[in-house]
């Protein structure tokens, strides 16, 4: 095989390996996956087949339950408390949301 052809082939293999290693084993957030499928269902530009596939994926992933959320233990408590304080002081937030934020603030 010609040297240039070998070089081109080896570059293609490295590119495929790099892509496979960075995308194939990456863990997906189940909430993001479900959210993407919900967006697909509501997108007027997607085909009926794609929408049906998204409905099937949602049914399989949810199995009649809720979508798993990110664990609270992975959240920075200072950031959570700051967000709740901002909610309490935001004039554009409903009284119900402010009350809920005040109650949750006692946890932090």
From TrEMBL:
Pfam annotation, one family: Con-6
Cellular component annotations (GO), alphabetically ordered: cytoplasm
Top-rank taxon: Eukaryota
Residue span of region Disordered: 63-108
Basic and acidic residues: bias regions: 95-108
The protein's name in its UniProt record: Putative conidiation-specific protein 6
Provenance organism: Diplodia seriata
């Amino acid at each position: 095989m010609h040297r240039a052809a070998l070089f081109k082939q080896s570059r293609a293999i490295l590119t495929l390996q790099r892509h496979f290693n960075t995308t194939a084993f990456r863990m997906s957030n189940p909430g993001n996956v479900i959210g993407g499928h919900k967006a697909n269902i509501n997108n007027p530009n997607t085909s009926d087949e794609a929408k049906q596939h998204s409905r099937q994926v949602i049914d399989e992933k949810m199995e009649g339950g809720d979508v798993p959320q990110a664990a609270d233990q992975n959240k920075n408590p200072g950031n959570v408390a700051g967000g709740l304080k901002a909610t309490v002081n935001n004039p554009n937030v409903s009284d119900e949301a402010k009350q809920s934020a005040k109650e949750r603030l006692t946890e932090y």
